[in-house]
């Protein structure tokens, strides 16, 4: 009898949902009982904010007598400033004829006459938009940042590609750097390097370094071992093998590192204008502060054009045969626009003539006003429905729950999804946020991120599945995704601000548009990667298209979908913080306020640190999910 009872008890199995449902019930009951207690409300005059502000005042007062600044940081600032001045002086000395000719020549050498035409048209567009000087300043800042990023990133990437130990040491640092929202770089750099072009260039450089290191390391590590062994067997030293084998064979992939570094730099130079970096970012910030899309749009278009031109030039290098050599005809053809541009410098004015510019500020503002008036019912319905159905209830839940209950819920979810180590990391980040004194604003930011991620994943899954199942739809959609991923983050605020004004939903809309393209790509690639024999077997057993999707393709594409969720969260968080400029509030507003008002610097600095902790927490939870076994494979007894 006893053995029968034991075997019967051992045979009892709880449904998979029983334990999670029980935990959810316990957490809900705790919320009802303790609601409104231990909520950690925000205090603008918190001691930690005032302490950081006082630290800044002390640093400003001792910037020229403290040894750290006097013998180290100030020299870095002076060196970067001199380099930027050199780039800026050369570009302004070339003027629009010289820059147009030289860019056309470089583009011809990179990809032929078609890319040269794109470059010439793009450079001319800066003048036509009436933004020649701002565009040149942005180009100089990007040039300095990319040069410094590659000067540091390529050697570190080569080292990481050749040494597994170095790669393990560098990877966590790069992970944190790529998780950090762009705003988080500005506060410490403004603290140590003051404001201006040098601080902007350094911020842009730091933000653009990770892809340079990662892609270079990947390129070097994937060089054929046979080629390396052959070089060593012929008596080549390690340095000779690096110069003669690794770098030439990795050249194409390293050109992609240059491309991605430039794209990241263009995304950052706009945000760097918040610490007084020169360029097109100032026009966008001015338009945002006045809520005038007409001021922002030309600058946004100029940044997109610059991104497209530089992207086409560098991608032409990526696509080129690494063994192909430039023909003499190509060199002569490229020399023509360069020589013509330089020859016209003393003849034509260096600044683009105003008579050849187009001013569309008034027309754009009128179009935006027309859209606001005629689409008011639709945009208001979408905005209010999202706000009242999702934003307000979730924000009320997170801000009224005790901090320890939110921490317990995050620990439970993280433990279930990603395992104990990442759960403890997430808990440590959340406790750090509580100690920083920005708990309430962090919960508000978390609300915005959660809603934006939900919408992003919903749209991304639908479009990704549709593209994976329809080659025609994928062919139509892919150029749009390519264009969307080329645009810097700030550009997405333009349509959002035009349609919805300065509200929290504006940041959500911009975040969704910004984060959807990579999510769609990852979902599509994940479903397409499902082995054909598995799909054929499912079809042969009589599965309908819906069953094939839900029972086979989505479960087998789980790692790609989880990576899509991870990327969606990281990109959404970055964009939501930028949304502080357009009414998103919370941590984004704190960071912006810290830059615009000297007395709020401490609050802005602390908010930037809290944003980093929030990003690390969300990243670690989702990053560990694809390493856990599928829920279908877990046995709950």
What does this structure look like?
It is a single chain. The protein is built from 28 helices and no strands. Helix 9 packs antiparallel against helix 12 and helix 17 packs across helix 20. 45% of the residues are buried.
Task: List the SSEs and their pairings.
Elements: H1 2-11, H2 18-34, H3 47-61, H4 67-111, H5 113-128, H6 132-162, H7 164-179, H8 183-193, H9 197-221, H10 225-233, H11 238-249, H12 251-271, H13 280-290, H14 293-319, H15 328-343, H16 361-374, H17 376-400, H18 403-418, H19 420-436, H20 439-469, H21 471-486, H22 493-500, H23 504-528, H24 532-540, H25 545-556, H26 558-578, H27 586-596, H28 601-625
Counted by DSSP, the helix tally is 28
Mean of all residue-level pLDDT scores = 82
How would you sum up the global shape? globular
Unreliable stretches: 5-10, 631-637
Structural Rg: 27 Å
What's the story with the biggest beta sheet?
A: none
Number of strands: 0
Share of helix, binned: over 70%
In N-to-C order, the SSE pattern is HHHHHHHHHHHHHHHHHHHHHHHHHHHH
Cα(first) to Cα(last) distance is 22 Å
Q: Which class best fits the helix and strand makeup? A: mainly alpha
Give the amount of beta strand, in percent.
Answer: under 5%
Compose a concise summary of this entry.
The chain has 28 helices and no strands.
